């Protein structure tokens, strides 16, 4: 039972628009690469349900908006009827346990290769600048990227429409809302950042132009499903997959202020201290100016433990705190935070393996639930 002890502000309830959250601990979006043939699998029912609490917010792994959106093996989609039907039992199970479930919809853009693309075509992006090969997270394999094809301006409405349809599908699957993936160097982030976006048309150059595609996506999705069901994830300060900006603070402030026009439910920002998905560095930047400038709810993520999550809420740096790796390894994270109990260690080597159980649903609970 959640207490309101000042020592544990993460356990205080919060009203996220129309959703009554019973605490502030959010499941961060995490790709798990266990959706064979891009179809969510029955084993995801257990994975998400294990991490559900009554009145807790969960965000899915990145879910592709179209057949050009993929860049990793076994990641789920939400562009076909089959995907929608496959998500339904997962969403229903989370709802049965009282969870609030948002679907993170995304498109990798140039972080892909022709092997993932329909008819072996080149990936699409705002640019035709390619990516150097990168060492994969297992530290052994090398990810190879095919140089992207720069989208023509007249093609961009079709990609915006893919996001709109994916959001509609997510609602049809039963999700409470969607989060647009605007972080980690993927398509939306590629448009935002001046070191990738080299366009000279109305989608490149000035801040206004670089934000045009992301805001068109926001508007299209908000018009489709309602702004009160829409969040966006942003990571202005990092340089994931060679995607960085020369003035991230200015970009971040500009985009959050622009988002205010659309009255979306939340903005979810990853801490500037997160150099990559997982690497935490000392950093002078703070998200406070963006938190203050944004009118909706503010979620932060990136390197939080119980103590600094509590501090972030106590200091009003955020309304909610999203946990990635600790939640991956501790399905009963909330309970452990309540009791200040020790946490299971996470096993990086099984983050992205395709096994339906190992490293997925076999992390132990604190105690056998009755
Ligand atoms: C296995 C794994 C997969 C991830 N996949 C995604 C993803 O699909 N979408 C996303 O926005 N972030 C993704 N992230 C980033 C997390 O949401 C989070 O921002 C990051 O892990 C830092 O938070 P933490 O320190 O609490 O783990 C992933 C992280 C991990 C560890």
Can you tell me about this structure?
- Keywords: Flavoprotein, FMN, NADP, Oxidoreductase.
- It holds the Pfam family Oxidored_FMN.
- Residues 10-342 form the NADH:flavin oxidoreductase/NADH oxidase N-terminal domain.
- It comes from Acacia crassicarpa.
- The chain has 370 residues and is an alpha/beta fold.
- The protein is built from 11 helices and 15 strands.
- Helices cover 29% and strands 15% of the residues.
- It has helices spanning 43-50, 81-96, 156-173, 187-192, 207-210, 212-225, 248-260, 288-293, 306-314, 325-329, 333-339, and strands at 14-16, 19-21, 25-27, 57-59, 63-64, 100-106, 124-125, 134-135, 142-143, 149-150, 177-182, 230-234, 266-270, 297-301, 320-323.
- The site of flavin mononucleotide has 24 residues, from helix 10.
């Amino acid at each position: 039972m959640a207490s309101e002890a000042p020592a544990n502000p993460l356990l205080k309830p919060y009203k996220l628009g129309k959703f009554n959250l019973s605490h502030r601990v959010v499941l961060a979006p995490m790709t798990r690469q266990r959706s064979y043939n891009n179809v969510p699998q029955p084993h995801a029912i257990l994975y998400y349900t294990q991490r559900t609490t009554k009145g807790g917010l969960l965000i899915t792994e990145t879910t592709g908006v179209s057949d050009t959106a993929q860049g990793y093996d076994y990641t789920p989609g939400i562009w076909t009827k089959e995907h929608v039907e496959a998500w339904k039992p997962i969403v229903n199970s989370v709802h049965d346990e009282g969870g609030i479930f948002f679907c993170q919809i995304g498109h990798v853009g140039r972080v892909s290769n022709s092997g993932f693309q329909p008819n072996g075509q080149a990936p699409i992006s705002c640019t035709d600048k390619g990516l150097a090969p990168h060492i994969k997270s297992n530290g052994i394999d090398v990810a190879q990227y095919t140089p992207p094809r720069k989208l023509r301006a007249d093609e961009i409405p079709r990609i915006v429409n893919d996001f709109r349809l994916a959001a509609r599908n997510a609602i049809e699957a039963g999700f409470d809302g969607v989060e647009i993936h605007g972080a980690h160097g993927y398509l939306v982030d590629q448009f935002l950042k001046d070191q990738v976006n080299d366009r000279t048309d109305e989608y490149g150059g000035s801040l206004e132009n670089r934000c045009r595609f992301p805001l068109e996506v926001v508007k299209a999705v908000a018009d489709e499903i309602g702004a009160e069901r829409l969040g966006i994830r942003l990571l202005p300060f990092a340089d994931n997959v060679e995607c960085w900006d020369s003035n991230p603070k200015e970009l971040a402030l500009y985009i959050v202020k622009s988002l205010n026009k659309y009255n979306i439910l939340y903005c979810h920002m990853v801490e500037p201290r997160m150099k990559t998905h997982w690497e935490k560095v000392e950093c002078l930047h703070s998200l406070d100016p963006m938190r203050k400038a944004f009118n909706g709810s503010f979620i932060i993520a990136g390197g939080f433990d119980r103590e600094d999550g509590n501090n972030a809420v106590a200091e009003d740096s955020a309304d909610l705190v999203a946990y990635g790796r600790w939640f991956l390894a501790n399905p009963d994270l909330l309970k452990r935070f309540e009791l200040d109990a020790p946490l299971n260690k996470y096993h990086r080597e099984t983050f992205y393996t395709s096994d339906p159980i190992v490293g997925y649903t076999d992390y132990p609970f604190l105690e056998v639930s009755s």
